Amino acid sequence: MITVTFPDGNQRTYDEGTTAMDVAMSISHGLARNILSGTYDGQTIELNDPLITDGTLQFFTWNDDGGKKAFWHSSAHVLAQAILHFYPEAKLTIGPAIEKGFYYDVDFGDEMISEKDFEKIEKQMMEFARQKFEFKLRAVTKAEALEAYKNNPYKTEIIENLEDGTITFCDHADFTDLCRGGHIPHTGYIKAVKIMNVAGAYWRGDENKPQLTRVYGVSFMKAAELKEYLELLEEAKKRDHRKLGKELELFTFSQRVGQGLPLWLPKGAMLRERLENFLKRAQNKAGYSPVITPHIGNKELYVCSGHYSKYGKDSFQPIHTPEEGEEYLLKPMNCPHHCELYKATPKSYKDLPVRFAEFGTVYRYEQSGELHGLTRVRGFTQDDAHIFCTPDQLKDEFKNVIDLVLYIFKTLDFKDYTAQVSLRDPEKPEKYIGSDENWVKAEAAIIEAADEKGLNTAVEYGEAAFYGPKLDFMVKDALGRSWQLGTIQVDYNLPERFELEYKGSDNQEHRPVMIHRAPFGSMERFVAVLLEHCGGNFPLWLTPEQVKILPVSDKYNDYAKEVAQFLEISDIRALVDERNEKIGRKIRDAEVSKTPFMLIVGEKEVDSGQLSVRRHGQGDQGAMSKEKFIKLIADEVSQLIE
RNA sequence: GCCGGUAUAGCUCAGUUGGCCAGAGCACGUGAUUUGUAAUCUCGGGGUCGUCAGUUCGAAUCUGUCUACCGGCUCCA
After folding, report:
1. Which of A253, A249, A271, A270 is nearest to A262 (CA)?
2. Which of A14, A43, A450, A626 is deepest in the core (most CB within 10 A)?
3. pLDDT by residue (tens digit) across A611-637?
4. Domain A66-233: which CATH number of 1.10.10.10, 3.40.50.720, 3.30.980.10, 3.40.190.10
5. Which residues in chain A, range 524-563, keep a C-beta under 7 Å from any nucleic strand B atom?
């Protein structure tokens, strides 16, 4: 008999050789139907394998990451089986589960595979799924494994790195794959599958190694779930900032201007300006001093900062002047300029902290394949600031920055966010610069600051920058996708390199600590994320056009213009639709352009002096006085922006 | 940068196996209409089919080149 312990502490005894699935059945048939995988004493097991020792058994269902992982990993086996069915010469490599679905990297040799082939692969996978093939893990010796894969250099490479005695194969039907396990009981659990796309991927992620074809797929236990997932993708497509940016006339790109260089159209520029002004006001209150620095800097500046040796190849090529040997760079970051500003006047401890803020446009030569809409570009504007303070002030300054970031998230309706604290890798102190004492102080300051602000943080070791620890903010948008936005970083490197100093109360020179911070990250990226988050329906205070005035016929155009002027006096952005169109048409166009408010003016309104108000997506709101309408908007704006 | 895909009017897209002046809807301009809560009708202008070269009697269509865009290149059996 063996004793099985469950996570809740309950224990039951079973005959030796009972399978995990038998155990589940003994608890309830419902559980047995839903479990996809499990662990025994923390080790991944196959549900159909016998249990032979006492241990702790944990089950995973679709609602657990472990369950999904087993499901998708098993689906990858079926994908491989289907691929071999059509391409017997293909060489399999690896096929893991990923965050949403799975992939298999395959060397197809001379064969090509494209979207046209997806359907037949899907059909074949479903055919295999219907046959409820059991997944069975079996141990093999290293020699056997190498023999089985003697024609597959990828699997051979993997096997060679494994210990003899730990190697297992997974069989289902007549298909065998090298695999360490963690499967669903049989293929029949797979009720829906979709091949998403194919892409190139290097063997082991190394660009010097052969390039394989990566086939991405996703599968579900219910056909309805696949449908739901595809609908979510559709929704994401509709919210794609590149599509909305074009439709709402916010920004564009030009092949002639160059890759990754966004051009802001008037509506987009005004939107961005509003965001900038919003942050400027908040920063003024928080004691920041605005500064302005040029777009280029002498190459020596970046040699001094260390950026040139580290990031020189990611910069645009140096700009040469008529002087022999003189070189300038388009600035890839603002910090060196700000360090020079700090040095412009002698500092005493009484002057600190100094907080220099600049919407600084920087240029970086991103690889062409990395460029993506506004989220990855070659020219962008950081909402940058550098705080120079004493080590003792670090924690308070850090907390103030956290407050600023959270204020921005709150105002822009990002309710769901997490913070990642990135610390040194304790194993590799040689990777970092700065004294151990300062690191200890800085890391403690960040952790305490985050704790005291009640942040939901995850600590990552080894993720710190070489010059200091940092705190990054990740937000979730309305569709549940994560984006990295703001960042706060501590830096000991630049003050050292630029020999920044302040006179302490002891009349000695001391080195300040620097904080780099950008709550938005970059204006481009932030606008992209905001656009996808709100689906183009910007908060009232940000939206390019707040009100569209729609005259019932052109007889009322003059009156409509009077109303517009009246609103403009109250700082409301209003436009009159003067086109010779029917009112229904004007309403439709205003709705499509996502204008928050529409005012219909005709004979009734001229006579009564009232306004007929319509709200985007909500329809007719009835009549109200001009004063009441202005107050309605003002109240909503002040409520949003506090 | 690398792999795969895509490129036709301002936008979204048709364009059969190469064959006369390359099409539609929307947008834009014109005229009519004077409209009451999600698309009024009329007429019209607009494209060297991304670039450069090649195959062919003939290329939007086939081949190569370059450029841009889209998906991917971290997830280790």
Report:
1. A253
2. A450
3. 999 999 999 999 999 999 999 999 999
4. 3.30.980.10
5. 552-555
